[in-house]
Amino acid sequence: MDTETEPAQDAPLLVPATSAGPALPDLAPDTAARIAESVASARAAGTRRTYASAWRAFTTWCAREGHVAVPAHPVTVAAYLVACADTVTEAGQRAYAPATLAHRLAAIAHHHRQSGHPAPTGDDLVKATLSGIRRDYATTGDRPRSPRAPLLTADILAIVHGAGAGRAPALLTADILAIVDKARADCQGWSDEVVERRDTAILLLGFAGAFRRSELVALTCGDVALHRLDGLHIRLRKSKTDQEGRGTVRALPFTHSHTSCPPCAWLRWAQVVAAFDTAGRPGVIRLLRHAEPFDAHVCRGSRPRTTSGAPLLRSIRRNGNLSETALSGAAVHHAIRRRAELAGYDPDLVRQLGGHSLRAGFVTQAFRNGASAHAIMRQTGHTTPAMLEVYAREHAPLLGNAVTNLGL
Predict the structure, then answer these.
(1) I need a labelling partner for 67 at 20 to 30 A (CA). Which of 97, 324, 331, 347 fits?
(2) How many CB atoms lie within 10 A of CB 222?
(3) Which residues contact 90 (CB under 8 A, 6 or more apart)?
(4) SS3 string of the chain?
(5) Structure pTM?
(6) CA torsion 39→45→49→55, rounded to 10°?
(7) Residue 220's closest CA among 321, 378, 327?
């Protein structure tokens, strides 16, 4: 079973009255509650959870050390940063990365503004303290970035085909299709095929669509349409960079091979979802027992009759029943690692994989195949090329690099 943590609630909305502005009007309780609800919704649920957790950590430290948390003095915040930086694990490693400290500062600033106080985090002392901590971390080599290894086209295919064993790590991130073929080859019965169809959809849709795992699990059956010329049109109703829900459409094309075709992967899984929602587990068993071997494209067939608002990707119980709720982001992460492990990938590489490997793989593979930053951004939704350069430097450092022109 996949479990989700309930979102933490923000503190009640406080609107301070000032002598320079109009007096605070009398509001009905339900109106004030709706305003507070709208303000809370301005941030994603995940951000609210992490802010609440970071704020609890700060207030707990202040209570233990005898400091005032609200309003906090800049010296108090600087002392807190130093205390966090000096915290080590049982193995003697730094417990908190610089990015974690920056996030905690953001939470402190948020709660001060929400309470009507100026944020102490903008003080020069606090900024200098964090900058010094970052330099110290860099000097000692503590807590370096550990980005997820990308899965490239060859990797996805390798995991499916079982071609992962014995390859070097640089090649293992190119086997999306091998992962898929391996998953299909290992099916021993109808229940195995249910999981294979779902995991193949995760891999091929996530890779070709450059989806974040949060975007994948948010998809409903009604978000996917089969276009007769383009392939799949997948409506992304909301994303990390589109919190207001303006929405966008990502196209996943038909491919030459049926084994790597995202529309085929979607249709095979959508058939399972439709069969289960219509007739439960017996309907899925009938579907798979009478299914033709997957040896050609199936994406030109009729679309299964799925429920528009039902989640597309779901957890699967041991008895083959599908959950009625959406798959969690953590489950996507585990599915990718499990499939890579079953395909014979090196354990060290498997530990580097995760839910972001599909999106990172899309960017890296596209760069390696000569795509421009603008073309990549059209699919990924990045607003600037800066983040794409991070992928290029970390996973394709020889592309456009003058070192290849030295004649060595």
Answers:
(1) 97
(2) 14
(3) none
(4) CCCCCCCCCCCCCCCCCCCCCCCCCCCCHHHHHHHHHHHHHCCCHHHHHHHHHHHHHHHHHHHHHCCCCCCCCHHHHHHHHHHHHHCECCCCCECCCHHHHHHHHHHHHHHHHHCCCCCHHHCHHHHHHHHHHHHHHHHHCCCCCCCCCCCCHHHHHHHHHCCCCCCCHHHHCCEHHHHHHHHHHCCCCHHHHHHHHHHHHHHHHHHHCCCCHHHHHCCEHHHEEEECCCEEEEEECCECCECCCCCEEEEECCCCCHHHCHHHHHHHHHHHHHHHHHHHHHHHHHHHHCCCCCCCCCCCCCCCCCCCCCECCEEECCCCCEEEEECCHHHHHHHHHHHHHHCCCCHHHHHHCCCCHHHHHHHHHHHHCCCCHHHHHHHHCCCCCHHHHHHHHHHCCCCCCHHHHCCC
(5) 0.66
(6) -20
(7) 327
Mean pLDDT by 10 residues, the chain (408 residues): 43 46 75 73 72 93 94 94 90 84 92 89 94 86 58 58 38 63 90 94 94 93 93 86 73 92 96 95 94 91 89 91 92 93 87 87 84 89 81 71 75
Cβ-based neighbour number of residue 205 at 10 Å: 25
